[in-house]
Amino acid sequence: xxxxxxxxxKDMSRLEHDYLKVSYYTEVAFPEAEVRFITTNNGVDNxxxxxxxxxxxxxxxxxxxxxxxSKKIKAVFKAKGESxxxxxxxxxxxxxKDPENKKHWINxxxxxxxxxxxxxxCIEGFGPS
Length: 129
Fold this sequence. Notes:
InterPro entries: DNA_bind_recomb_sf, Resolvase-like_N_sf. GO terms for molecular function: DNA binding; DNA strand exchange activity. The protein is α+β, with helices and mostly antiparallel strands. The chain has helices at about 20-35, 55-80, 110-125; strands spanning about 5-10, 35-40, 95-100, 100-105. The chain folds into 2 domains: about 5-85, no CATH class; about 85-129, no CATH class. It is built from 3 helices and 4 strands; from the N terminus they run E-H-E-H-E-E-H. It has a two-stranded parallel sheet. A two-stranded antiparallel sheet has the order 3-4. It is elongated, with a radius of gyration of 25 Å.
């Protein structure tokens, strides 16, 4: 009994961000395994070889875009951290917003005491592992 496989993804970046791996899958692994590979947004279908001319360029652009986006996000987090602005929107357990300055956090004493107790238990060896 032979099985048949099709892989359908939204676009090339959904398969993998590393353009070398994508090239290996689309040019070597899938054809050898007789797997049909289709992207809905990029119009790629390995059953139609005319579509495959631009795939390597598309893969390189996808990898560059992912790396560029990652750098930008890291830069935003770094800038927020250096400006002492919170990096998250939900306050960690044990804190509350300062009534006088919503961007400043203060200890919420009843819950902060629970956090201190958990910390003490971890120091005594009752940690998560």
